[in-house]
Amino acid sequence: MSKQYEAIGEKARKIETALKFTDGDMEKAKLMASGKLHDVVVIKGKFVDPQKNISGIFLAFVNIVNEYISAIKTVESSTTGVFTIIRVFDDWKHLYNSLMAYESGPDAVDSSKLNADLLDAFIRTDIFPDVQSMNLDYLAVSIQDMVKTSLESEKIKCQIELEKTSSMDVELAGIDVMVPSSEEDEEEEQKYEEKPPEKKGPQSEFEKKLDEIESKASFIVEGKCVLSPVKGRYINEIADGEKMFVILPGKDELSEKIIDAYKARDHEGRPLPVAGRVIEKVHIDGGGLILYVLVAKGIYAKIVEEENVKVQTDLTKKKGSERKTESEEKDARPMMNIFVYIIFILMIIGLIVIITMM
Q1: Alpha-carbon distance 142 to 139, whole Å?
Q2: Per-residue model confidence as pLDDT tens digits over 63-100
Q3: Which residues of 39-64 are buried (b: 16+ CB within 10 A; e: fewer)?
Q4: Which pLDDT tens digit goes with each residue over 181-200?
Q5: Residues 227 and 166 in one domain
Q6: Domain membership flag for residue 294
Q7: 300: domain range?
Q8: Are residues 147 and 46 in the same domain?
Q9: Residue 64, SS3 per DSSP
Q10: What is the pTM of this model?
Q11: Is the dihedral of CA 206, 224, 247, 269 positive or negative?
């Protein structure tokens, strides 16, 4: 009987914890408590740099429902043994126990910079769509680049794996879940609250459409496309959900805050492009487009642009580098042809000399 009471108590504790992450929805809480509702994807990774003789593990818990980073745990070691021993295909709870053991071990070094850099890079590059779609191929490359940048080494090698879990399981494992604070959100809303809009007359269908889109955002800031006349894509071809680069002119305090958060300034303090995700594209009667691009949680950049311009997207940036490589290869081909031609001439001269001597 005591075991039955313990089981009931454990189930109640799980449901109580799950309620915190399901907005009080009892049905969803029960599903989460029974392991049938997953709202988190764990990015399990290990890295090594044989030249610097360092290695480590990181676990990033990404809430794919509300799109925020629940927690990031990292450990860095002054040996390469961690990379050799750890298996990213193991259960995340097992990896977490290993991480905690290495963290208290004699070879552990301070990994706070890596932890902060990963958190910043995840938000800045908007990894949520790729995590939601479990796009392991893309994440493996992009996260390896993030680790290289943080540790300032091009020799870093990473191995990544993904696993689904729930916020309830993360908290019950003893990990502090970084839930966005509603009080902070209210303070931000009060800080940037605008004057009540003036009463308008009857709205057109176009105006209603814009109001409907903008009502989904907490704030709207002005944005501009990054024009790329040669290698870019026509703005009319960009689809909802696609990543593109946006410049925030920084004409308001909120834009300035986003620019500073992304560290998107040049040496003269001017705004640099930031990555965003297209939420919606609206055609303007008579020509032109309005793009709404998510640049931070709850914040849309509103871009008004012509239809016939080419802009830089995440895709065109990658293709640009690929085209550069192809161009370099083409430039190398004439040199190779000349080299082969010279060898051929030398062979003929050598043959003539041999025949003459005979």
Answers
A1: 5
A2: 999 889 999 999 999 999 999 999 999 999 999 999 99
A3: bbbbbbbbbbbeeeebbbbbbbbbbb
A4: 544 455 555 555 544 455 55
A5: no
A6: yes
A7: 215-314
A8: yes
A9: coil
A10: 0.63
A11: negative
